[in-house]
């Protein structure tokens, strides 16, 4: 397979069709229609860049939610999608950490309250499938963005263009390929970008819960020896006034056993683990299972390719970091490419792609390290680690300025990333 001839800047995506064949050329070719791919596609097309994005939108409920922090909400607002999503999401006012490891040096519970740093809330919790469905609807309506269902499997990186093909006669090309195809990214692999992946002995069980007591916009993360057990507020619905989502990290065998339980039995386990914090619980809808791993790509860019979101980094679901980090990639990449387009540069030129990599690498390295350390520290029952973790929680609970600094960093990390995410 060879990469086709250059596409003029600003042209509409060009298509050619024949029996069993569909070819689309644009300025930017993209793979992966998850939250990250869709948001980059919308941002680029809104900036006047033609985009062809290949991926099947999966908007089926899977019991999973994402807590979108302030920078992510601002980015989605700039894309024009937040207004529709806001009513489906619940504000998070307080984030509480509870050390439930049973350690000798157990730290006190820590409550991070957004009002302490002059905010109404840290962000909003939304069901993942509603976020993806909302982004897909917006993507279909943006001129200059062609969203095609399917998969891309073969990639050819030429000197001026990159081309990619699916198994069903679909072929696309662009001056640059944006890989947002998740942690098993085929595009990343084809570009020869390696990853460092460390699996944890954990899976996350996810579910939607209806409960008796109000959540009062408080998210509670219990740190247990098998992983985090987190209850995150959701808005009430026609069926239930009080709803929350659950992310429960545990050993894979325990996840398999619990996922197979009848919903009422699983609900009793959840009530026990949550110490009846939310009163009686009902598990509603599908229960999801997600293997937990830490993954980091060796590079964010290569010849005519940029990787973003879980294609570039994945981490344990602690402290609502994963998608928030990924949406900062999305904001940074779309801004770098839009700037390059305004300056008449080749969007796939190494100098352009390096600007994206430089903007993002510090934030990604810091978050990956921090989440990995915390997850290991919870699982590790050796005394020095317990002591350090307990001391950290004690300091957070008793030293106001430290707690407020941690809150600001959680919301709006590092100057570079901050600027990219909030501009
Ligand atoms: C249990 C759990 C809870 C989480 N909670 C939070 C939270 O509260 N806050 C937070 O910020 N983050 C959270 N995360 C992380 C967050 O969900 C992920 O970071 C986010 O979903 C990654 O989005 P993505 O678009 O990069 O990848 P994905 O959602 O994996 O999307 C990739 C897309 O690419 C498609 N694809 C793959 N290969 C191809 C191909 N060859 N051709 C075409 N398409 C392809 C896939 O089908 C998929 O649609 C959580 C994660 C888990 C597992």
UniProtKB/TrEMBL annotation:
GO biological process, any: ubiquinone biosynthetic process
Keyword Oxidoreductase attributed: yes
Keyword Phosphoprotein: no
Domain spans labelled FAD-binding: 26-361
Cofactor(s) listed: FAD
Pathway info: Cofactor biosynthesis; ubiquinone biosynthesis
Record-linked InterPro entries: FAD-bd, FAD/NAD-bd_sf, UbiH/COQ6, UbiH/COQ6_monooxygenase
Membrane-traversing stretches: 28-54
GO molecular function terms attached to this record: FAD binding; monooxygenase activity; oxidoreductase activity, acting on paired donors, with incorporation or reduction of molecular oxygen
Alphabetical keyword list: FAD, Flavoprotein, Membrane, Monooxygenase, Oxidoreductase, Transmembrane, Transmembrane helix, Ubiquinone
Similarity comment: Belongs to the UbiH/COQ6 family.
Name the record gives this protein: Ubiquinone biosynthesis protein UbiH
Species per Swiss-Prot/TrEMBL record: Lichenibacterium ramalinae
């Amino acid at each position: 397979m060879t990469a086709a001839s250059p596409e003029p800047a600003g042209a509409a995506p060009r298509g050619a069709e024949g029996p069993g064949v569909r070819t689309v050329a644009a300025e930017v070719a993209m793979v992966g229609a998850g939250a990250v791919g869709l948001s980059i596609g919308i941002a680029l097309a809104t900036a006047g860049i033609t985009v062809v994005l290949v991926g099947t939108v999966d908007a089926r409920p899977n019991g999973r939610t994402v807590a979108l922090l302030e920078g992510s909400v601002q980015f989605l607002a700039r894309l024009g999608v937040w207004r529709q999503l806001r009513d489906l999401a619940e504000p998070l006012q307080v984030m509480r950490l509870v050390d439930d490891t049973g350690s000798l040096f157990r730290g006190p519970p820590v409550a991070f309250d957004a009002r302490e740093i002059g905010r109404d809330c840290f962000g909003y919790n939304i069901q993942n499938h509603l976020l993806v469905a909302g982004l897909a609807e917006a993507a279909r309506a943006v001129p200059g963005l062609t969203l095609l269902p399917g998969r891309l499997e073969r990639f050819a990186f030429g000197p001026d263009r990159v081309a990619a093909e699916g198994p069903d006669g679909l072929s696309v090309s662009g001056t640059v390929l944006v890989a947002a195809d998740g942690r098993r990214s085929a595009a990343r692999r084809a570009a020869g970008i390696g990853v460092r992946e460390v699996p944890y002995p954990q899976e996350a069980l996810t579910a939607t819960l209806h409960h008796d007591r109000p959540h009062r916009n408080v998210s509670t993360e219990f740190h247990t020896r098998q992983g985090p057990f987190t209850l995150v507020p959701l808005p009430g619905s026609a069926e239930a006034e009080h709803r929350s989502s659950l992310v429960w990290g545990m050993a894979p065998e325990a996840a398999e056993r619990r996922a197979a339980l009848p919903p009422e039995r699983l609900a009793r386990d959840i009530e026990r683990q949550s110490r009846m914090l939310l009163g009686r619980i009902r598990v509603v809808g599908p229960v999801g299972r997600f293997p937990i791993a830490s993954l980091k790509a060796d590079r964010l860019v290569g010849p005519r390719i940029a990787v973003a979101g879980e294609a570039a980094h994945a981490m344990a679901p602690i402290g609502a970091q994963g998608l928030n980090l990924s949406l900062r990639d999305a904001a940074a990449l779309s801004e770098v490419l839009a700037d390059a387009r305004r300056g008449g540069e080749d969007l796939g030129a190494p100098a352009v792609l390096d600007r994206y990599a430089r903007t993002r690498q510090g934030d990604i390295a810091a978050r990956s390290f921090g989440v990995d350390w915390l997850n290991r520290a919870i699982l590790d029952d050796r005394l020095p680690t317990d002591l350090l973790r307990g001391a950290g929680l004690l300091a957070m609970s008793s030293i106001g300025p430290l707690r407020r600094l941690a809150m600001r960093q959680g919301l709006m990390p590092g100057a570079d990333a901050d600027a990219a995410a909030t501009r």
